[in-house]
What we know:
Layout: H1 37-40, H2 44-52, E1 72-74, H3 80-88, H4 102-116, H5 126-155, E2 157-158, E3 164-165, H6 187-202, H7 225-232, H8 242-257, H9 265-280, E4 307-310, H10 320-325, E5 336-338, H11 340-344, H12 372-376, E6 377-378, E7 382-384, E8 387-389, E9 413-414, E10 423-424, E11 430-431, E12 438-441, H13 442-457, H14 468-479, H15 486-489, H16 494-508, H17 515-522, E13 530-535, E14 540-547, H18 562-567
Antiparallel strand pairs: 1-5, 2-3, 4-12, 6-9, 7-8, 10-11, 13-14
Amino acid sequence: MYKMKNLVKYIVVMFVLTGIISCDTILEPIDENRLDFDFVSSDPASAEGILLNGYSSLVDQFSYNEAATDDAVNNQLNNNFKRMALGELNAQFNPTSRWNNYESVLWVNKFLEIIELGEIVWSRNEEINEMFYMRMEGEAYALRALHHFYILQAHGGVGTSGELLGVPYLTEFIESDGDFNTPRLSFEATVEAIMADFDAALALLPTDYSADQSAVNSIYQQYDFDNYLVANGPDYNLRMSGRIVKALKARLALFAASPSFLNDQGYYNIAATEASEVLNTIGGVSGLASNGLDYYKTYDRNDDAEMIWRGSIQNNPASGIEKRMFPPSVNGNGEINPTQNFVDAFPMKNGFPATTANGYDPQNPYANRDPRLTEFVVVNGSSYGGGTINTGVGGGIDRLDSIPNFSTTTGYYLKKTLHPGVRLNDDGTAVGQRHYDVYFRYTELFLIFAEAANEIGGPDNSINGLTPRDVIAAIRQRAGIDQPDTYLASITTTEAMRELIRNERRIELSFEGHRFWDLRRWGLSLNEPAKGYFFNGTDYIDIPSVEIRNYPSFATYMPIPNNETLRFPLLEQNAGW
């Protein structure tokens, strides 16, 4: 059924972790370096290598699929997101497909099959061995749930039958010659299956990997603390944990509750409750991290206050992302160009929308604006990357449309997610910086809570002591909006708060891969023309249609790969594809 059919019975071992297995367990060479099931099912390092395959294909912040939305244009003519947005999207060409995540699901299922045999000895200490089993089984359930969520987000939708459908939910390893002709569950049944795996994980995982004995979960309190630290100590703090799982449950529930899907108060309640419980462990709104706006400027392992889940910091400095995105005058390719649509989303510094009635001057467009605008976007006249960037007349190679495939097409370049300490030298060398992948930030969880709680009961709906108004107030105050926030105070209805929350989400989570999916789950237009802004030496001029987007009406729900539906007749395609 899937690319995962290419998995074979012999499994290549991944030695990803260090420090868990002692040197005397390193494997002796085996014929052609292939390991059969009997060996893998009893060798700790080999078995854990299978589990670690479940950590592949995690979705991070570096996709830049915003180029397929109203937030950005990609200046590379052959960019897949550009091609998709301009009308090439179909069941054979879908750059946002996640069907291959089933491969990670199968790895996890293979691991669960192995540990069910109970033959692995992680440690000769019985308590430590038992806790290794518990923790890694919890990781496996959580990873299986997460990958099914990724697939559901990308492929759930209204089928040709007219029913709202989810995806097949695989709970067993399937051999290469097995039966992959599996029907899709209903959408809600898929959500519930994912929730069940998350709950199974929560029953096994520590909330955090910590050396704080007072923070040990009740299920682990019966064990000697020194033994506990061996299996669940701080060395594992980038692995799946109970805190991460609760945040993921909130993300799933918000997605399920959204207008394009179940539009369901019960799931909104789950999202708000799960989110509030995690947020209250950091002090509620007072725990909103000060570096939530600019975490990407430092990637500091010693200041993880904004991170619920991230990857490891790179061992070596790098500059690849910045090479793609920096303006051409500082030796970048200027690939992602934020749109005027996105710039218009930023309010005035007093918090009111950027309209002439509220003080916006179209000929001085960046004055008195929300400070996040110039934190996230290189505007005309910005200093960035070691130079001054002018995108209008006199801007040289940075000027709009000056050099095809390098210069901006909208009048803007990107700052968000780029490390400002990177320097791309004229001689082709670079001063790189260390980065890490981001999988879940606290700011997203605050916004999940605000959206869900508002949909249940409006701006001042209190759930576990938090309200949407309090959350949005804290986010906007951190952003530098003038206080008191008179505009926020004027919001009294669910509808008005909904628009404000959606706009704050658009800004705060920009260029981290969220808006592509948000537009679809909200049922908003996918065909807003991408706009630009150009300084002609005297005036700023609107460019009303840098790109005309061309999505079919049914693109709210993305297609299942065509070759899969052709090979497996039980697999129903989404309507229109």
